[in-house]
Amino acid sequence: MPAFPRTESEVIALAEAMVAGYTAHAADFPSVTVATLSTALSTFQTNRQAQISARSQAQLATETKEDKLDALMELMKNDLKKSEVDTAADPTKLAEIGWAPRSVPVPVDPPGQPDSFHPTAEGPGDIWLEWDTPATGGLVRNYIIERREKTTGGVEFGDWAVVGTSLNTDTHLLEQPRGIQLEYRVKSANVSGESMPSNTAAVVL
């Protein structure tokens, strides 16, 4: 036994097929009033088209509203900027238009020195490093990892160079120099500057 259609498009297709069949073969289906079915189908299709049109108009109205809102916001922002200039001598007057003076920037303390810097694992040219967040100072934005190398055949180390950054308190450095004395350290940083460097970790990879 065929299953009655579930989707709207399938229902419409079956209804149209029924109307066409009843009309062409009325003598075979004397119990059915095809005009009633045809009217019901036509009424549905009319209302369906009205819904589609209303949906299109609603979409257009929404887009128009958003455009008008953008224009309003742009005008408001420009007027507020002008008003801030007008009331520069007494910014409290901005309250008369429901606005307020710009907040005074709060200075950020420089970050503190990272603690307990140490390697956790080593591989051929690879090193994993970890450290603890500073116990003092301002909020850390990121960490800067530096390395220096002992010159070939020498006893002195070269200059410190940045070899990586991290947002977390660990890092994995790849393709590091092998067979020479290396030293690593980390500094914390934010908008106010960089901290004192951490303790130094010496390794030979």
* Major sheet description: 5 strands, antiparallel
The rounded distance between the terminal residues' Cα atoms is 77 Å
Structural class: alpha+beta
The secondary-structure element order is: HHEEEEEEEE
Instruction: Let me know the CATH homologous superfamily of the largest domain.
Output: Immunoglobulins
Q: What global shape is seen?
A: elongated
Strand content: 15-25%
CATH topology of the largest domain: Immunoglobulin-like
Radius of gyration from the CA trace? 38 Å
| Oligomer type | single chain
Mean pLDDT: 89
How many β-strand stretches?
8
- In the predicted model, the low-confidence regions spanning at least 5 consecutive residues are none
Domains (count) = 2
Structural account:
The chain has 205 residues and is an alpha+beta fold. The chain has two helices and eight strands; from the N terminus they run ααββββββββ. Strands 3, 4, 6, 7 and 8 form a five-stranded antiparallel sheet that branches. Strands 1-2-5 form a three-stranded antiparallel sheet, with no helix packed on it. Helix 1 (8-24) packs antiparallel against helix 2 (34-86). The longest helix has 53 residues, at 34-86. It is elongated and about 110 Å long. The relative contact order is 0.11.
Tags for this entry?
Immunoglobulin-like, alpha+beta, about 200 residues, 5-stranded antiparallel beta sheet, 3-stranded antiparallel beta sheet, single chain, about 25% strand, 2 domains
List the helices and strands and how they pair.
Blueprint: H1 8-24, H2 34-86, E1 115-123, E2 126-132, E3 142-149, E4 161-166, E5 170-173, E6 181-190, E7 193-194, E8 201-204
Antiparallel strand pairs: 1-2, 2-5, 3-4, 3-6, 6-7, 6-8
Helix pairs in contact: 1-2
